[in-house]
Design brief:
This protein has 328 residues and is of the alpha/beta class. The protein has helices spanning 3-28, 51-55, 59-72, 87-95, 115-129, 147-152, 157-166, 181-193, 215-218, 220-225, 240-243, 249-258, 271-283, 289-303, 310-313, 319-322; strands spanning 33-35, 42-44, 46-49, 76-77, 105-110, 134-139, 170-176, 200-204, 229-233, 263-267. It has an eight-stranded parallel sheet. Strands 1-2 form a two-stranded antiparallel sheet.
């Protein structure tokens, strides 16, 4: 072997060794924790989405996924009263037996916007989840321009949730939505006008959102200013972004983690997908401006019309549009 070949071989070997060491280190590293806004609560940088758990064919596998995630260091659990007809909450409740509830920061959502609907759904969630309190309860699918006023009118869903908080059934209050950053801003402004500041807000934050009707650009600065917990969801666009062939799953997860998110919630319906999320959390390092720019440059051509964020431009993901009775 001549000197040039030797040096090339040595350099390649060194690079592979370095990569192996980095991955080996990441596999042993703890999942990072972040603070949820002004609450001071420490939550895992990655959260376990509840919807996909209820779609898993095997209930026992769902329970195994939840517990394996928690054993690895995930403490933020996402769910909703309406996910899979309640099956997602039922399975999570079973997974939280045997001491797991004490390890969890448990979040679920309600659709009810009237006082009765909100109270009834909260009580049902508590029963399914087999707990006496929800750490974070959120108003789900704030996606219509009329939703903020309806939630805050006297005798509405907000009154029910504030009453439940006084009773110790709810610790923190937030809201979610995937449709429009302008509606999120209206919800925040309506709350401020009523002298109320949410503890957390959930919204899509991903490599496509950055280019189209962006929650990142419009809503994120307001949340940071008011120290409201930032719950990033749809980091892979519910798998739609992967169909664009412009970014890998880990790139998508790392991009969302690189934002000032308290947690990045991702759906895990199998052990390999769970492990992918855990590895992404453990290996995450702050991205340089150059790396962010390169990733956004790759995704920009596919992002212009919202094709890979159909939850913004269609009713495909709108449970309360298809089931308006859930609103009360």
């Amino acid at each position: 072997m001549d000197r040039r070949s030797f040096l090339k071989t040595a350099a390649a070997t060194s690079m592979l060794t370095s990569l192996h060491d980095k991955l080996a280190h990441a596999s042993d590293a703890p999942i990072p924790m972040r603070t949820m806004g002004r609450s001071g609560e420490k939550i895992s940088i990655v959260g376990l989405g509840g919807y996909h758990l209820g779609k898993q064919a095997d209930e026992q596998e769902s329970i195994r996924i939840i517990r394996a995630g928690m054993d690895a260091g995930i403490n933020f659990l996402d769910n909703c009263w309406d996910y899979n007809g309640g099956e997602s909450e039922v399975r999570m409740g079973k997974a939280l037996r045997d001491g797991y509830r004490k390890k969890a920061f448990l979040m679920t959502k309600i659709d009810g916007q009237t006082k009765k609907a909100a109270m009834d759904q909260l009580e049902e969630s508590l029963r399914r989840l087999q707990t006496d309190h929800i750490d974070l309860l959120q108003f789900h699918e704030v996606i219509r321009d009329t939703d903020p006023a309806r939630i805050f009118v006297a005798g509405s869903g907000m009154d029910a949730v504030l009453e439940a908080k006084k009773q110790g059934k709810v610790r923190y209050i937030g809201f979610t939505g995937h449709k429009s950053p302008d509606i999120h801003l209206k919800m925040l402004e309506t709350a401020f006008a009523h002298g109320f500041t949410f503890d957390a807000v959930q919204m899509p934050l991903n490599v496509m959102d950055a280019h189209y009707d962006s929650f990142e650009k419009k809503v994120l600065p307001v949340l940071v200013k008011h120290e409201i917990g930032v719950l990033g969801m749809k980091p892979l666009g519910d798998q739609l972004i992967l169909n664009s062939k412009t970014a890998t799953p880990v790139e998508c997860l790392h991009y969302a983690m690189n934002l000032p998110t308290s947690v990045v919630i991702t759906g895990c319906d199998s052990m390999p997908i769970l492990q992918q999320a855990i590895d992404a959390a453990r290996s995450f390092r702050p991205m340089s401006k150059a790396d962010v720019g390169a990733l956004l440059s790759k995704t920009a051509p596919a992002a212009g019309k919202g094709e890979f964020e159909r939850y913004k431009i269609s009713n495909d993901f709108d449970g309360t549009v298809h089931n308006p009775q859930w609103l009360g």
